[in-house]
Design goal:
Blueprint (H helix, E strand, L loop, with lengths): L13 H14 L4 H6 L5 H9 L7 H14 L3 H13 L4 H8 L7 H15 L6 H9 L4 H24 L12
């Protein structure tokens, strides 16, 4: 049960109303997560700017991180959203389950990425040296590492918001593990 009502367009600032309008045009609706960010005058724009910023990680690689992090943080909203987005990026149901578990037996490079994202999240950034070594041995770069850590932080913020305010999920629920 949500502890916060999802604000409607007329309940947010003019700046956030403009963002809502853009989301309606681009996505077809305003996801409840984004509406929840709009309780703040600045958080929604800041989140969208950060999430949409250039990265050395491709969209599919970002979903690997998003799924692993959201599972560790037990965020039902983000698991549902990123299951849907993961499918849009070419992952099947079995692959998404694996990614949520922090592994990818179907791709050695994505496996190293999933393991790193899970390890960083579980250990609050105190990454195991062997996991980091495996990540680099799989072909990832230092630039990829910094972008991965940034994405872990980005996703953790959303996970914490959703877990705190119990955002009503407006995507198909992710299957239980």
């Amino acid at each position: 049960m949500s502890t916060f009502n999802i604000p409607a367009r007329n309940e947010v600032s003019e700046a956030n109303q403009a963002i809502f309008d853009n989301l309606e045009k681009q996505v077809g609706f305003v996801p409840n997560l984004f509406a929840t960010y709009a309780y703040s005058e600045n958080a929604l724009k800041n989140y969208l700017d950060f999430a949409g910023a250039p990265s050395s990680l491709k969209a599919k690689e970002k979903e690997v991180v998003n799924l692993a992090v959201s599972q560790v943080n037990n965020c039902d909203y983000c698991l549902a959203a990123h299951t849907a987005i993961g499918k849009m990026n070419g992952f099947n149901d079995e692959q998404i389950i694996e990614l949520r578990q922090g592994k990818a037996s179907f791709d050695s490079k994505l496996d190293a990425l999933a393991k790193l994202a899970k390890n960083i999240t579980e250990n609050r950034g105190n990454t195991d040296a062997s996991v980091l070594e495996d990540y680099f041995n799989a072909g990832w770069t230092k630039e990829n590492l910094i972008d991965t850590i940034s994405l872990v932080g980005d996703k953790t913020i959303s996970n914490y918001i959703n877990n705190t305010v119990k955002t009503r999920v407006d995507f198909p629920a992710a299957p239980a593990l």
